[in-house]
Amino acid sequence: MERSKRVMWLVLLLIFVLIAGGCGTSSAEKDAKGTITIGLNNWPENIAVSNMWKILLEEKGYKVELSAMEKSPVWAGIAKGDLDIAPEVWLPQTDEPLYNEYKDQLELHEAWYEGTALGLVVPAYMDINSIEDLDKLGINTIVGIDPGASMMKLTKKLIKEYGLNYELIESSEPAMMSELTKAYKEKKPVVVTLWSPHWAFSEFDLKYLKDPKKIFGDQENIYFMTRKEFGKDYPEVLKWMNKWHMDDQSLGQLMATINKTNSPEEGAKQWIKENRNLTNQWFE
């Protein structure tokens, strides 16, 4: 009887050791995968996909940190190697100045979104369709975003090229959206700098003003970039991200879910749960 008890206790002890050892190995393997830092600026689609990738990579055993800043510091951080990934590069025109400045110090990868748009946007109730008609509005301000954004530089160029008597107001994406929302509710005239993809187009009836001089250029694609040697340090992550592709529907749903939950992380988690068929394709 005593011998049977001893055998039973030895078996239980062996099981405990095996479980503890397995857990220890799993934790060590997880820690061994390292920390990845994603640099993002305050654009809705940038926040959305950065949180999406944070969750997806953490599921694969990586530790992921998000570092929020304006666009120019993101490029500088990637070039210096202080950041690992930046998910949003608009080319061939919008981010061309930054790309030309830093292209030898970073690595540009696959396009994950095709067919963007950007320009001056007004509510559909406004009786104006072209940038050339802006001086007929009776207002003299364009509400912009953060001063370091390439779009702001293009807008300054646009004001000069069209000879507009307008002031470009520097603010941020949330501040710009606040001004648009307020004016829209009161049916007042307002002109903002905006881009697609953006959740605003699903919330409001908006329109781009025609740009005959094509200051904002034609449609572009969105790429992601990494620091030098990132692919060498994290080959499987780069492989996964090069398979990443989203369209208006998938990206729009992701941004809308985040907007409804009022939490980038929770919204991204919910969207991932509902779109495993899509995200699983990136890891095949």
TrEMBL record:
<dbReference type="GO" id="GO:0043190">
    <property type="term" value="C:ATP-binding cassette (ABC) transporter complex"/>
</dbReference>
<dbReference type="GO" id="GO:0015226">
    <property type="term" value="F:carnitine transmembrane transporter activity"/>
</dbReference>
<dbReference type="InterPro" id="IPR007210">
    <property type="entry name" value="ABC_Gly_betaine_transp_sub-bd"/>
</dbReference>
<keyword id="KW-1003">Cell membrane</keyword>
<dbReference type="GO" id="GO:0005275">
    <property type="term" value="F:amine transmembrane transporter activity"/>
</dbReference>
<keyword id="KW-0472">Membrane</keyword>
<keyword id="KW-0813">Transport</keyword>
<feature type="domain" description="ABC-type glycine betaine transport system substrate-binding">
    <location>
        <begin position="35"/>
        <end position="274"/>
    </location>
</feature>
<dbReference type="GO" id="GO:0015871">
    <property type="term" value="P:choline transport"/>
</dbReference>
<protein>
    <submittedName>
        <fullName>Substrate-binding region of ABC-type glycine betaine transport system</fullName>
    </submittedName>
</protein>
<dbReference type="Pfam" id="PF04069">
    <property type="entry name" value="OpuAC"/>
</dbReference>
<dbReference type="GO" id="GO:0031460">
    <property type="term" value="P:glycine betaine transport"/>
</dbReference>
